[in-house]
Structures are given as C-alpha cells and as structure tokens.
Amino acid sequence: MDIVSLYRETLVKSQHAIKVFEPVTFAMDASNLSSNWKKLQATLKQSGAASTTAITKRKIADRDSSSAAPRKRKFADHPHKVSSKTQPSKTPLKKRKMADSSATGATGSSEPSATRRRSSTNTSAAPVTVSRNAKVNEGRSATAELGKYIAMDCEMVGVGPNPDNDSVLARVSIVNFNGDQIYDSYVRPKEMVTDWRTHVSGIAPKHMVEARTLEEVQKEVGEIMNGRILVGHAVSNDLDALLLSHPKRDIRDTSKHAEYRKIAGGGSPRLKMLAEHFLGLKIQDGAHSSVEDARATMALYRREKDAFEKEHLKKWPIRNVPAGSGDGDHKKKKKKKKTTRKR
C-alpha cells in the first residue's frame, strides 16, 4: 500500500471517529431517589425558573434600551430643533429692535398716556410753572401776543405814618390768556416809602433804580387794557392803585366767582388758597411775584371759563339791537291829529 492510500484511509477513519454526542435523558423513578437528590432537583428547578425570569427581564430591558437609544441620539444630533409650541417669534431681529425702540419712545415719558390726556385737557397749571424766558422790569414785551384776555396783578409798598394801611403801587405785571408775560414794570412811588414789605412784596429800594414813573406805566397799561377782557383777583384794588378804570362788563374777578367763594364759606377767598386747592400750586410761600400771581389768576379763569361767562351774562345780558335800526331815515313819523270842522 502506498503512502497516499494509507493517508486517505486514516483520514476517513478519523472523520467517523469524531461525532457530536447529543444529550441523553434517562428516565428515573422518583420513588427510588434519595432525599439529597430530591433537594437537588428542587434547587435546580428554582434556579432555572429564576434564571429564565432574569433572562426575560434582560431581553425586555435590552429591547427598551435599543428602542430608546436611537431617539436620544436623534435629539442629540439635532439640538437646534425646537418644538413648534416653543418656537421664537419669526419677526426679524432688526424689526423687533425697531419696535422695541418705538415702544420705549412712546412710553418713555414720566406720565402714562391717560395722565397725558388729562394734563392736556387741564392746561390751567402749565402756564404758571413753565419758564417764559421773560425779563423782570421788561416793560411791554416785543414777542408775546396780546389776545383778547389779559390778567393783571400788582404789588404794593407801605407809605406814610401808617404803612400797614396806606399802600402805593410798586410793580405791575400783565399776562395773556396762555400765561405769557405781556408787561412787567417796577413803579417809582411819589410818596416816601416807610415799609417796603420786601418779605411779602419782593420789592427792595434797589429795584427803584430802573423803575418807571407812574404816568409812564398808566399810559402803557391803559393801552393794553383798552378793548380787552381784564381778569384779576380783587382787581378793583389794582385799578385803584393804578388810578385807572375799566368797564365792569369787561372784568372777570376770580375773588367773586361763586364756585371759588364756596371754599371760603361764601366770603372772598385768598389767591393762594384757590391756587393750591384748584390748581395744585403753591404760590406766595415767600416773597410774592406779580407775574406768578397773574398767571395763577388766568389759570383759575381758564379752568372755569364757561361758568364765568354764564355767570357774567346774568349780570350783563347781551343787548339785541334790531337790524336796520338807527337814527334819521327810520325814525317813526308822528301821526297828525285829525281836526274836525265845527259846523
């Protein structure tokens, strides 16, 4: 036998020799088993059931983890994607900035819109507090418009042996309907001043250096008052100090207005009281200013303008003049008496 044949025979025998043995189950009689063997079988059954349960739980857990993992990876892969419910505004950043700036500009004032509307409707306080860039002792203003309505206030100083009772004019100020200064002048008294009342009037001897004479002031104030409605607080005292007069029909006195007299129990209220109560303004805390007082007086008139005019019409009703009435041609001719002849 050659070597090749021997090798082949040996290889065939080795293949038949290598076999896979399947497990063999032996039937055993349980009655012949020992107690130790029975315990071993019970233990093996319990461990087998526990291992089966553990394997089942592991499979479920692996399945859950395998199904959840891709979702987590997807979310991690796309962190910029946000739910549609929480998506930011699609308005471009530039437009949003412009809208924010416009909203800030609209609400940037110290007052809310409702407050601004109220302040625009009630303009009585504004002219008293706003600076007018007017000069003291300026005389007749070259820029302020005169208008139909003017308010006047005067400051006095004491003269004679009884300065508390005897007063003369030392300053006069006039403002228009809006509170702009129309006229302001110190007035040089003709009498010897015995009490300047500086703590009240705000006037001192130094102010008399450039003061105008009474005659100059009378002329200028008279021209301003001519044909206009004069508003004042106890204005008759100011007219007496100026030695001037004005038609009563063209005077509006805040000290005599029925609504304002209520807070004084029907008497004549002080201007300071009216300004604080109705305008919320504090005036005359120290030395008085005739310009400030005139503005407060005009503000009080503006506040109750309709009521002022209605009250005024009761005293001074408008006279209705028939159209075409006049002298001369339209005079009624006297009827001649008929005379009868005697028979």
From TrEMBL:
The GO cellular component terms are: nucleus
Biological process according to GO: ribosomal large subunit assembly; rRNA processing
> Could you confirm whether the keyword Hydrolase appears in this record?
yes
- Give start-end positions of Basic residues composition bias: 331-343
Q: Which InterPro entries match?
A: REX4_DEDDh_dom (IPR037431), REXO1/3/4-like (IPR047021), Ribonucl_H (IPR013520), RNaseH-like_sf (IPR012337), RNaseH_sf (IPR036397)
- Read off the Pfam families from this record: RNase_T (PF00929)
Molecular function in Gene Ontology: 3'-5' exonuclease activity; nucleic acid binding
Q: Where is this region: Disordered?
A: 47-136, 312-343
Q: What is its main location?
A: nucleus
- Annotated localization: Nucleus
SMART domains noted in UniProt: EXOIII
Exonuclease domain residues are 148-310
* Biased amino acid composition, Low complexity: 101-113
Listed A to Z, the keywords are: Exonuclease, Hydrolase, Nuclease, Nucleus, rRNA processing
Tell me, in a sentence or two, what this protein's role is: Exoribonuclease involved in ribosome biosynthesis. Involved in the processing of ITS1, the internal transcribed spacer localized between the 18S and 5.8S rRNAs.
The record's comment on protein family reads: Belongs to the REXO4 family.
Tell me the protein's name.
RNA exonuclease 4
Organism the protein comes from: Penicillium ucsense
